[in-house]
Structure formats: C-alpha cells, structure tokens
Design goal:
Length: about 350
C-alpha cells in the first residue's frame, strides 16, 4: 500500500522534521502556540506541546519527558509566547506514555497546575510508575512473552527492556478525570474531549469546533502509525478499539490536525483511511503467516513480518513491541473468527476451522 501524502500545515515545520532539526516555537492561531520539547534517546526527537491562552495564563496539552532539557525547552517556548512555567493553569495529558505525561508532575509542583487524564489511563499510573509495583508489572509482561513463544532468557531481558525510561517520569496522580465528550471549562475555548483508546487505554484527543482543529496526540500522526499492542495494561482487543476510535475521529469536520509528533497537517479523513488500510494489510499478512505454518507462536509470526528494518537490527525493547503488536493483530483476527489459538506456554495459532 503506497503511503498517503498529507499536506503540511507549515512547510518549515515539516522540513525541520525531515532534516532532523527541532522546529521553531510557533503561533498557530491567535491564542494558540506550538512548542517543541526534546525527547532524549528517541527517534521521535520531540513532542509538540500546545499552549492555549486563557485569562491569566495558559493550559497546555501534553508536557514532555521529565528532564532538565525538556523543562528548560518548555519554559523557553512559553517565554516566546509571553508566559512562564508558573503561568500554566492545567496540563491536559493525552495519555500516560513518558513523552506526554512525564513532566506533568514537575509542572504542577512549579505552577500549581491541575493535571487531567482519562480514567482508563489514570488507573494505570500506580502499576506503571510506582517503584513498589513495577516488579509485578514486569512479571506479568514476562508471562505474556512466554505465552507468545519468546525463549525464557529473552523473555526475561525483554520484560525489563523499557525500565530505563521510568527515570523520565515524575509520577503524579491526576487532579481531574476527563471523560469522553467532556467540555473543558477553559474561558475562550470550546474544547471537547474524545476518548480514543488503542495506543493507550485512556488516550484522549481534543477537538475545538469553532477553530476547526483537532489535537490528536498520538492517535493520528502525519507519517507514522502509532503502536497498538497487547500488553499487561492494554485492553483485551486494543486494535479493535483503536480502529473504532479512528473511524469516529475520521468523521470530524476539521481543517487541521495538530499531532504530538512530526508536523501539523490538513487531510484528516485521508490519513485515517490510509491508517485503516495499513492495518487491514497487516491483518492479511498475519493471517497468511498462520495459514502458511499452522501452530506458529506469536513470536514466530512477529519475526516473519515486514518491519521497517531487519529483525536482527531491531533493538530489544522494540522487539517486544513488535511481538505485542503482532499479538494485537492475532487477537483481532481471533475475534473475527479467522484464526484460533490453543492455550498453553506457548500459545499456538491455527487457521479457524470452516
């Protein structure tokens, strides 16, 4: 499937992404700013934090990783807009991955801002980021990997492969829970929350109908597709959840999409259609792999799929993600009734009996 080419809303921002540069702080609309905040040791390089002007300060959508570099970049970006960290009134977190949620607690400590999360992600904070709970979460991940057919020593390694990124998060319980359809009480804004599970169980987008813009978080991006995977904190069928949410978002009547990474773009509907098509192609590829070798494990299948690089070149934490993405597609095929699994350690996958 050929890649759809969306139109960048700002060609210089797109050029910065393609050139590996940090884009400029930008006034997107009157009262709306885009602030790139660097992400360490990550190919995404930065998260785009959006600052919405309200009386006496700003409300920001997402925050960045908890590093001094990120904190300073956010402070400098707010300075360009005429504000300081102490002027932040609220942090609306699209989801609890470190590059979106990690700095929220530090901002609250500095400014007194309230933090908002969807309840489904709020329920995951303790198990993911509290030191007393992380070992139990790793054991659940290891168990999932063993059921997937990952060799025992490799499963042990992969279960802890993302431990290093926990240092970039200040654990912070939300002050407010944001439900699907909530209208945020922000003077001068008609901001509405849309629950878009899949990439994370509580992922939120925000639409502003009057300004005809969608703040899409990681749900819809200009060039890449977000990871949708089965893992210990996911829903039972995250790919089905994601595709349903994607179709709903694709019906919105907006002029511009403001994502958390890459660059702003125009064609929401076309991009949604492409991403749905991408997953349909991947589902067909996974089903074909099961048909070709009945009794395969998820790990067997993941190693055969087409990735952006050769399997041997994929770092450990990304191999875990690849396995869990493959599992999400297997689970969705199982729900469709085209494949079935035999329980055990490992689980084995077969074409469904006709």
């Amino acid at each position: 499937m050929s890649k759809t080419k969306v139109t960048a809303a700002n060609q210089e921002q797109r050029a910065a992404w393609l050139d590996g540069r940090l884009p400029e702080v930008e006034r997107v609309r009157p009262g709306l700013w885009s602030i790139p905040v660097p992400i360490p040791i990550n190919p995404l390089r930065y998260v785009l934090v959006y600052a919405l002007e309200v009386p006496g300060g700003v409300v920001i959508i997402d925050a960045g990783w908890n590093t001094d570099e990120a904190f300073d970049a956010l402070a400098a970006g707010l300075g360009v807009a005429g504000y300081a960290i102490t002027d932040v009134k609220a942090v609306l977190v699209t989801h609890i991955h470190p590059d979106h949620y990690g700095l929220a607690g530090r901002i609250r400590e500095t400014s007194g801002a309230w933090i908002g999360l969807h309840p489904a992600d709020a329920r995951l904070v303790h198990d993911r980021y509290d030191d007393s709970a992380i070992e139990a979460l790793m054991l659940r991940e290891r168990s999932l990997l063993l059921r997937s057919g990952v060799p025992e020593m490799t499963a042990q390694e992969l279960a802890g492969a993302s431990m290093m990124i926990r240092q970039f998060v200040t654990m912070a319980a939300p002050d407010r829970l944001i439900e699907d359809g909530d209208r945020l009480d922000l003077p001068g804004w008609d901001l509405r929350a849309i629950w878009t599970p899949g990439h994370s169980p509580g992922h939120l987008c925000f639409v502003e109908p009057g300004r005809r813009v969608l703040f899409s978080g990681d749900h819809v991006l200009a060039r890449i597709t977000p990871m949708v995977a089965v893992h210990p904190q996911s829903g039972p069928n995250p790919l089905a959840d994601y595709l349903d949410a994607l179709r709903a978002v694709g019906k919105l009547d907006v002029d511009e999409v403001l994502p958390a990474h890459e660059f702003r773009f125009l064609e929401l509907g076309e991009r949604v259609d492409y991403v749905i098509g991408h997953h349909e192609e991947r589902l067909a590829e996974v089903e074909q792999a099961v048909t070709a070798v009945p009794g395969s494990t998820c790990w067997d299948i993941a190693r055969q799929l087409r990735w952006s690089r050769a399997w041997d070149a994929i770092p450990p934490h990304m191999r875990r993600a690849a396995n869990n993405e493959a599992l999400a597609h297997l689970v969705w095929l199982e729900a469709r009734g085209t494949v079935s699994r035999v329980a055990g350690e490992p689980e084995r996958w077969y074409p469904a009996e006709s």
